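FORM 7B: Structural annotation worksheet

SECTION A. Query
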Amino acid sequence: MSSHSIGIRVALNAQLLAGEASYRSAGIHRYIDEVLRRLPRVAPHIAFTAFIGPRSCAPEAPGIRWVRTTWPTHRPVVRILWEQLAMPLLLARERWDLLHAMAFVAPLTVRLPVVVTVYDLSFVRHPEAFRAWNRIYLRLFTWLTCRRAAGILTISQAAREDLIRLWKLPPERIEVAYPGVDPRFRPLPEGEVAAFRARYGLPVSFILYVGTLEPRKNLGVLLEAITRLRPSVPLILVGGQGWKPAFRPRLQALEREGRARWIGFVPDAELPLWYNAATLLAYPSRYEGFGMPPLEAMACGTPVIAARASSLPEVVGEAGFLVDPDDIEGWAEGIRTLLQDHALREMLRARGLVRAQQFSWERTARAIAEFYNKIAQPSVSDLDP
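SECTION B. Predicted structure
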């Protein structure tokens, strides 16, 4: 029997697969969901079992066995207790070759090779953006998980470098599995986009921001930059409110002046229309494990101006404007140039479409499956005599 026909048994802790749609279902949920959809297709030799919460929405993924916990793991404290106390007992009932903790933390007492996905070290780099208990938990348990893990997956080279530099983890144990972009993020027919603009009362020209409203997104700098635009072009913000948005009073003042408009959380299915309707996407975040909005905007043919910080240069490449995150005048000048120069926008549109094609969820899943193969050694009892 060939090694590829030997069944590797992989347990997946996917408790952060979300239930109802909300801003909390973005980011990590999206990555887990997209990977789970594709893993069985790219790795038919692996037997997958995913442990999910009672409210989790299991994606269409024939080839994955789903195990729902009866604990209310949508509550963070309950999830932590389940992972550390109940999951090791569940895993002990069957034989596994590998456990993949799909978000930061694995059970510390489990006696299996562990792969953990660490999306970023924002709780180390930007501790002010987290509640104290959440920051302490993530720092301690993620660090302990990484120290004993057989392998660590990240979503960008910048995140990988943080793990090596800040936590002195061995580089040879860390691999990057970049996110992909769904095919629904694409240029849409002009009539469909015009009807969408009319439905929301959107101007023909506007600047778009997509993401949670929270400190590390650096929205204060962007808000100051748009006040310097003459003539005024409005900033439309799409995303839920996170923790401690200190810039809210400034945003509310600009809303009263007609310079900004916060839409709030929008359904995932609506996002391609927002990107298509915008003149450009501005993404000033100081720190991202990857940064999906710039990639999604490029896939829709929308020019991007982003911060020259953390992973964002990896995402944008030569297909967009990069500006120092603290350079207010640089942001104002870059946005002004993009708004006024139609030929430049068309060039960036073409480059962005090509750039976005380099990222696919199939490639993500394949990189993860290859990492499993490297780490998991099938049990001797699986081999033919």
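SECTION C. Observations
The radius of gyration is 22 Å. Residues 3-180+361-382 form a domain with the Rossmann fold fold (CATH 3.40.50.2000).

SECTION D. Sign-off
Analyst initials: ____
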